[in-house]
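chain below, 460 aa
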Amino acid sequence: MIFTGRAGGLPTAIAQGVVHLCILVALATLLCRIQARRATLEQSERHYRLIFDTLSVAILEHDFSAVAARIAQLRKGGVSDIRNHVGNHPEFVAAMRKLVKITDMNAAALAMLGVGSKAEFLARMCGFFSETDDSFSECIIAIGERRPLFQVETHVLPIHGPPRQVVVAFGLGPDISLDRVPGSLLDVSHRRALERQLLQKRDQLAHAERTGALAAMSAMIAHELNQPMAAIQSYADAARRWMSRNPPDLRETSLALAGIVEGVDHARTVMERVRALVGSSRIDLAEVELDGVLLTTVALMRCEAAETGTRLVMIPTTGDTLSVMGDRILLKQIFVNLITNAIHAMLNSPPEQRMVTLSLERRDDSALVTVADQGPGWDELDSGKEFDTFFTTKKNGMGLGLHICRTAVECHGGTLSRRNAEWGGAIVEISIPLSPFHQRTGPAADSVKDSHKSPFLFGV
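prediction:
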């Protein structure tokens, strides 16, 4: 029995030793993995710090965890509409602002705000941001929604110099830890100043153009009226001299008075030309190919389109060219005005959507020109008013462009109409009767399909 006990104790000791060895191996393996992960984390942190500190873009690291906790408390308390709550409780916004902590910043941020160290920044932190800035309200909503990207334009207040306009951007997605959110500050002050100067210069240029047009019109009137007025003066002086003779020469006086009447008629004709600029008038018509007029107009507008990042697309007609009886210069001015209106209507649209499409097709015995943009479209509340004299939706508009366009189209025996496109944007359609030759012969290539059209692309 004693022998058996001793023999059974050895395997047990060996088994226990093996178990202990396995435990030691497992602990060593786990420790190696922990050390490897710690080294990876340290390397990642060093890489993050290198990028954070050396980026030329200003970076601030935010701690939004306290704000997120307060939003969670609101939701537990039954508040489901965070946006409405933020809008109705300005005191809540002020309290949330105080909960935000800026835990770190890079050298570019310190340089932007005019401070020399992080300690100085933290000591003055409240003075760099305006308490009346409404953009923080949207930031609270973005935190509550955990948006993948939050971006807003706001102001910061450096120690020295005027406030700076900056674009603040950071991510708040569900996978991001809200206690360490890096946000970039892009200084756009210089860009905005240039934009304001550009707008101011454009306003000055538009004013100069209107002044120049008025001066040209005044010069034209003065030039045209100078000759009849001088003639009237000469005839009046002659009539006075003939009447002052003894006896008066009634025959010469009658001829002088007839000259006065002729001069008055000439002056009346000049005034009728000026009135025709905004009224109905007859024009001299000749056969004009609309394809060529449209192509030259689009080429003329290419530079203005490029300045606004607008593409001009011309879809020509199929078959033979379409000719109308019209005035080439007047038709070109109609298309220039409509393209300009379309470009201006898309100034607030995304650059990739800025496109003006012009098409020309035959419809019965008329040529149909369509000008379409991808802007906000026509306001249905203003339906019918767009063609009224002096009605305009532009800040510095005169309200004459569309009225003169419609008048000029009607002088060609055509019609001008407008509508909104199904895909969005505004459409203007001009229908002008074809020349008698086209009306007699009809389309030259009815078998040509629309798929053979080849659009011409101008601008950007």
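Residues 63 and 180 are 5 Å apart (CA to CA). The first helix runs from residue 2 to 54.
thats it, cya
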